[in-house]
Amino acid sequence: MSAELRIVPIRGIGEIPPGTDLGLVIYEALQTNKLVLQQCDILVVTQKIVSKAEGRIVNLDEVQPSEFARIAAAQSKKDAQHLEVVLRESRRIVRMDHGVLITETKHGFICANSGVDESNVNGERELTLLPIDSDRSAYNLRSRLQQLAREDASFDIAIIISDTWGRPWRNGQVNTAIGVAGLESIVDYRGQRDPYGYELQASAIAVADELAAAAELVMGKIDRIPVALIRGYEYIPSESDARSLLRDTSTDMFR
Q1: How many Å is the Cα radius of gyration of the chain?
Q2: CATH code (residue 205)
Q3: Is residue 252 part of a domain?
Q4: Cα(210)–Cα(214) distance, rounded to whole angstroms?
């Protein structure tokens, strides 16, 4: 167990145009905030700036909606072009009711609107899409930051790419890990014994999600702080990724 955590907002990261060297931007922002990366630091980075840097932006004026999108949009009073983008990013529709569209993305995530987002995007007719491979994005960002900092010290860090999603059975939204590099996403306590001697049967803690949610407390939704540094958490170094957080269909009682 980690005795104490420190979560620091990384300020000063401005607008991210397509093609930005995001690792360099974050590294320079750390320096501006008088922070030096240390062994086992964790950086939580919002999906939005990753998607922008990777050019995952769609201009709605260039989207031709399908007939299905037009019909569905008319029934739900939604924008047909926006809905078409959501459908293109989905593997299947899980639920569609009362103007809410829950889909399974091509990554296997189940979320609202395939993770397509229109908030915090310059221009009223632009949307951001999830990274094509958010785990690969996390891996690349981790490698770049380690490369930049290598002249200062030899160390290991972890990256979590986060997105804000709703949850079944619970009101409110939380930050969730959609890309992970460098740490074990789930800590499995099964087979261990609690202080009373009982063997744990089902305790597997999604630490990547918990860290992403904790980071949201200093990032906020309107404060334009897309990166947070978590220091002090004793994570397990691993080649694990966010895909390990997805429940297998054979054990999913709600599919």
Answers
A1: 19
A2: 3.30.1330.100
A3: no
A4: 6
